[in-house]
Design brief:
Layout (H helix, E strand, L loop, with lengths): L2 H12 L18 E8 L17 H8 L2 E3 L2 E2 L5 H10 L3 H4 L16 H6 L3 E6 L12 E4 L23 E2 L8 E3 L10 H15 L6 E10 L33 H11 L6 H31 L6 E7 L4 E2 L5 E2 L5 H4 E2 L1 E4 L8 E3 L3 E2 L3 H8 L6 H4 L4 H6 L8 E5 L13 E6 L2 E7 L3 E8 L17 H15 L5
Parallel strand pairs: 1-8, 1-9, 2-14, 3-15, 4-5, 4-8
Antiparallel strand pairs: 2-13, 3-12, 6-7, 9-13, 10-11, 16-17, 17-18, 18-19
Helix pairs in contact: 6-8
Length: 479
């Protein structure tokens, strides 16, 4: 059976039709194009539009200034594979069964991107394509995760790491490259090659049909190898984290203390190494912003932005010494909160910043709604289209994030971990299998997450309410 027939069959199973779009009399060319810009492991404080005083991010800042920014967007999972699959399906890890990067591939099932294809879109995923699925979610897929010069843990043969100021994680089991200069021209980076391939695809597509293009970058995920002049564009003394957050939180749950720290303890690094890692990380995000700006400028010249929705997001954040940690896989704000910006020349609000917590699981349902494309009933309520059109806050509904530490088999830890946030209150819990390690923080009173209020009488009702939500969500889990 041809792919198109498979799509129609899948749509029929959902009760939808392949011709559902902007309206009965809408033509394919009237539907908005989609450009989804997707980074990996990007903190919100890497962007000026999120209030960072040291960030260099003019391209994304412009999208925010002319569009809508969700200031408190939460990833469905603070680890790569589960987060990405959740975005493609609109489902939580409790529904997909994918909780970590070592999980079996999600079974053959249509992604939400298939609905764009069935509605006449040409679709492509270019760059870092970590789908966690045996069924590619795009018609065209081009893979490029890393450059030929730098791998996850080492530079290629012939490059002396000492000459490139490399800083690595000194612990076990993985010698992540947290900083260094890129040993080649910008054109050799995977980020530059990703946008060049995106341009080639746009040039070769059928101009009579709308397009859905996702450009996915490995950066600023490790290896943090930064090409000049971005390698020194952020002065080390410009990056200033609050002093209280440099040490582990007194509210740290045991799964971090006794589990994650065995592979991600920033206290193994010297203060000089941490400062250097931060300088290179924010230089890397400045480079990615420049690459994205180059792509947007080219599309502007080609007339490809006139009817295009642009969305910028990351799969999750990361730690760079804060909370005494490196990497991600926590529910602390720098790990679980991500950039989430929407832009369109006409039809969306401008220069609006919305502060109600939302889930990035809403990304594809929102784009489907903006394109007038029907979607499965299970995801229809996720759309944030009204917020984007009218510039109004979304409902203050609870948001969830969940994963396991099994991405690192050495940790021997696969208990489900879940976070539920309601307004400023955030609860995390470990299911082992009974609920344990309950941590409740009040981000209004304690933005640095230093106190566990779970046992305080004034917070008892809130704890019980949020814990009940987590237990109910876990009871539906597929594992």
């Amino acid at each position: 059976m041809r792919r198109r027939d498979l799509l129609k069959a899948a749509l029929a199973m959902t009760g939808l039709t392949a011709c559902a779009h902007l309206g009965e009399d809408a033509s394919e060319t009237s539907r908005p194009n989609v450009l989804w810009l997707f980074t990996d492991e990007q903190r919100t404080d890497s962007l000026g539009c999120y209030g960072s005083p040291w960030a260099r991010s003019p391209a994304i800042d412009r999208l925010a200034r002319e569009g809508v920014t969700f200031q408190r967007a939460v990833t469905p999972a603070p680890v790569c594979g589960p987060a990405r699959l959740s975005l493609f399906t609109g489902q939580y890890p409790t529904q997909t069964g994918v909780w970590d990067n070592m999980a079996q591939l999600f079974p053959e099932s249509e992604h939400l991107t298939a609905l764009f294809e069935a509605a006449g879109y040409q679709t492509a995923g270019i760059g870092r394509n970590h789908f966690m699925s045996s069924n590619p979610p795009f018609q065209t897929v081009w893979y490029k995760h890393l450059s030929d010069q730098v791998s996850w843990f080492s530079y290629a043969e012939g490059f002396d790491e000492a000459e490139y100021d490399v800083v690595k994680y000194p612990g076990e089991p993985y010698k992540w490259i947290f900083g260094g200069r890129f040993p080649g021209p910008i054109e050799a980076t995977s980020e530059w090659q990703t946008i060049e391939e995106g341009k080639r695809w746009l040039k070769g597509r059928d101009a009579g049909a709308p397009f859905f293009l996702r450009l996915a970058f490995n950066a600023p995920h490790t290896p943090v190898s930064v090409p000049p002049p971005f390698d020194d564009c952020i002065p080390e003394d410009a990056v200033q984290y609050p002093a209280d957050v440099e040490a582990p939180s007194p509210a740290e749950p045991s799964w971090i203390r006794d589990g994650l720290r065995r592979s991600a303890d920033a206290r193994l690094m010297s203060p000089e190494q941490i400062r250097k890692a931060r300088r290179y990380y924010y230089g890397f995000t400045a480079f990615v912003d420049w690459v994205i700006g180059s792509m947007l400028a080219w599309m502007e010249e080609e007339g490809l932005l006139d009817n295009t929705i642009v969305v910028f997001a990351a799969d999750h954040g990361t730690h760079i010494g804060d909370f005494g940690l490196v990497q991600k896989q926590t529910f602390y704000e720098p790990s679980v909160c991500v950039p989430y910006v929407f832009w369109r020349r006409e039809g969306l609000a401008r220069d609006v910043r919305l502060t109600t917590p939302v889930e990035t699981r809403s990304l594809l349902p929102t784009l489907l709604d903006l394109g007038g494309i029907a979607q499965p009933e299970a995801t229809a309520g996720l759309s944030l289209a009204r917020c984007l059109r009218d510039g109004v806050e979304p409902p203050d509904d609870p948001v969830f994030s969940m994963f396991t530490l099994a991405s690192f088999p050495e940790l021997e830890h696969d208990d489900p971990l879940m976070m539920v946030r309601e307004g400023a209150l955030k609860l995390s819990v470990r299911f082992a299998p009974e609920p344990t390690d309950v941590v409740l923080t009040d981000l209004d009173a304690d933005p640095l997450e230093r106190e566990n209020r779970a046992d305080r009488p004034a917070y008892r009702d809130a704890r019980d309410r949020l814990l009940a939500m987590a237990i109910a969500r876990m009871e539906t889990a597929e594992r």
